[in-house]
Amino acid sequence: xxxxxxxxxxxxxxxxxxxxxxxxxxxxxxxxxxxxxxxxxxxxxxxxxxxxxxxxxxxxxxxxxxxxxxxxxxxxxxxxxxxxxxxxxxxxxxxxxxxxxxxxxxxxxxxxxxxxxxxxxxxxxxxxxxxxxxxxxx
Length: 138
What we know:
Oligomer: single chain
C-alpha cells in the first residue's frame, strides 16, 4: 500500500501555508496606519461656553446638581456672573416661548459673553498662582 496520489503535494502545500501563517507573511502589501490630525485645543472662550452652558441648562431644567455653588461647578466669578445672567434671560424667554427657546437664548448669551470676555477665567478670588501652591501661609 502506498500513499494516494497527490497526498504528498497536499501535505507539502499545507506545511508551506502553516509556515507562512506562523511567520506573519501575508499576500497583501503592508498596511500603514491612517494618519489623523492632532486635535486642536479648545480656546478659553470655547471652554467657558461649554462649561457655563452645561450648568445653565442644568439650572433651567432643574437638574439634580443644579444647586451646587459656583466653585463646585468649577466656575470663575466672571463665569458665574455669565451663568446668572444667562439663567435670568432663559427664564424670561421660557415664560413666553417655552423651555426649548429658553435654552437657545441662554446658550446664545453664554456664547456671546464668553467670547467677549475671552473665557472669563481671570476673576476667581480663590485663584492662586502655581508658584504659591506649595508654600505655607505666613
